[in-house]
Write a structure and sequence with these properties.
CATH class of the largest domain: Alpha Beta
Number of helices: 13
Strand content: 15-25%
Shape: globular
Number of domains: 2
Distance between the termini: 36 Å
CATH superfamily of the largest domain: Vaccinia Virus protein VP39
Number of strands: 7
Order of helices and strands: HEHEHEHEHHHHHHHEHEHE
CATH architecture of the largest domain: 3-Layer(aba) Sandwich
Structural class: alpha/beta
Oligomer: single chain
Bound molecules: S-adenosylmethionine
Largest sheet: 7 strands, mixed
Helix content: 40-55%
Length: 306
């Protein structure tokens, strides 16, 4: 791990996951292995951590970082949506904890060649944005495929202001092959400035769509509840409102259990609560944000399996 890598909200995450010697924990987004390292220290030599990442480059770095833990770690190249298959493939039925630290690592954003950042670069950077560059459609290809209303819908879902105007501007400049092309196409669109720079939101909305991030998250949450043993813990760190809202709604549903209309005299769905919420969108403390500005938008949610 580079000296600069600071896992986000690591102490509150560990308080939720509460890893104990000999337990089995899944780090479903292992990244540079920052959280995983702390979890492994608590698990001891008899514990087991399975680290998953869809980005092969991140996995190679996690492998280096976590080598001292030997056989207590196994790393798997997979997507969140395949969480259940990964766990079953490791010969496990249930696990004691699952961590999802969503989105990108700063190392991926800083790797300007991958097209995640709208920062200027001296060279022309392909508009790629795939976390796994071995498969799927690039942002450039996605932009070329969508018609203008579909693109506006994608931008709206990503919280981009004036999505129709932005979609029109982008469409008028197709093909957009490089991050510079995208920046140029956005240059003449006057957009209301909110908390985030509008170009940041456009890049983020495209990245979310290219990597199918929200659907991945929904599938992973469903699997996580089924994979947790009674008393098992789930911790999720999200970095934008689209993600956080899905986690919040999912946990609320699983805490409630019954989905019958409130005016029904007796439950007909038969669903019972499966989770007890223990953290409701906790933000990082200001000291952490000073040390690690990337933590600024983090929200931590956690739950325990009944
Ligand atoms: C914020 S970083 C995790 C950082 C990590 N907790 C650490 O301390 O080093 C998120 C990681 O999740 C991976 N990732 C994001 N979405 C994923 C998905 N749907 N499936 C698998 N990995 C994913 C990214 O490639 C990235 O490496």
């Amino acid at each position: 791990m580079t000296a600069a890598h600071l896992p986000v909200m690591v102490e509150p995450v560990l308080r939720i996951l509460n890893p104990r010697p000999g337990e089995r924990i899944i780090d479903a987004t292992v990244g540079l292995g920052g959280h995983a390292e702390r979890i492994l220290r608590a698990l001891g030599p008899d514990g087991q951590l399975i680290g998953i990442d869809r980005d092969p480059r991140m996995l190679r770095r996690a492998e280096e970082q976590l080598r001292p833990f030997g056989g207590a770690v196994s790393l798997v190249h997979a997507r969140l949506a395949y969480l259940r298959d990964v766990v079953k493939g490791a010969g496990l039925e249930r696990v004691d904890g699952i961590l999802m630290d969503l989105g990108l690592c700063s190392a991926q954003i800083d790797d300007l060649g991958r097209g995640f950042s709208f920062r200027q670069s001296e060279r022309l950077v392909p508009l790629d944005m795939r976390m796994d560059q071995e498969q799927g459609e690039t942002a450039s290809e996605l932009l070329a495929r969508l018609d203008e209303p579909e693109l506006a819908q994608l931008l709206r879902a990503g919280g981009v202001p004036a999505p129709r105007r932005v979609a029109r501007a982008l469409h008028a400049r197709l093909p957009l092959r490089t991050t510079q092309d995208l920046r140029d196409a956005l240059r003449n669109v006057r957009l209301p400035r909110r908390r985030h720079h509008p170009a940041t939101l456009v890049f983020q909305a495209l990245r979310i769509a290219v990597n199918n991030e929200l659907q991945e998250l929904e599938q992973a949450l469903e699997s996580a509840v089924e994979l947790l043993a009674p008393g098992g813990r789930l911790a999720v760190l999200s970095y934008h409102s689209g993600e956080d809202r899905r986690v919040k709604e999912f946990l609320a549903r699983e805490e409630r259990g019954c989905i019958c209309p409130p005016d029904l005299p007796r439950c007909g769905c038969g669903r019972t609560p499966r989770l007890k919420i223990v953290a409701r969108g906790k933000p990082p403390n200001p000291d952490e944000v000073l040390r690690n500005p990337r933590a600024r938008s983090a929200r931590l949610r956690g739950a325990v399996r009944w």
